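Review form for a predicted model. The reviewer records the input and the model, then writes brief findings.
Reviewer: anonymous (R2)
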Amino acid sequence: MENAALIVVDVQRDFCEGGALAAADTLSLLAPLKQCIEAARQANAVIVYTKDWHPQNHSSFQPNGGRWPVHCVTGTFGAELMPPLQAGTDEIVVHKGVQADGAGYSGFELTGLENCLRKANVDRVAVGGIATEYCVLATAMDGLQSGFDTVVLTDLIRAVQPSETAKVLEELKKAGAKMSTSAEWLKSL
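Model under review:
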């Protein structure tokens, strides 16, 4: 049986309601996402958390000429996982966007995530989290490019602009990603 991984993308304080760069309706994501993580743990899936982990001088920040407000600065309150989420000691946490230049949208970009998953004999990944049209999209696309069977958990994603969700999901489908609810995905474990 192939091993599965659940990739929880950027569910950090700064991307949730009240944060510096909040996506829409994120508080409704937390309880179902936590339930999915718990069920995936019980099924022995590999759990991965990606976190934006930017230096203060990150090129994407508005004070540095970028398009985004300052967010998820290394070691700050805003960069923490949003409660009630908490990574277990045996779970993978990858920091992305750690260089001053470059968007750092994908959980696979310069993080070593692909190697970690290969070492764990993972063949398929499910992706959920924030934000659909940026980091979820980039992480799922890179999962596909790395050769993983990639599923997007449509009930466990949130967008900055919800009107973009259908277009992003269509783009992912065309690239080869599968769409599933978390309940359906969990049945496959």
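Findings: The domain at 3-187 is CATH 3.40.50.850 (Rossmann fold).
Further findings: Residues 27-42 form the longest helix (16 residues).
Recommendation: see findings above.
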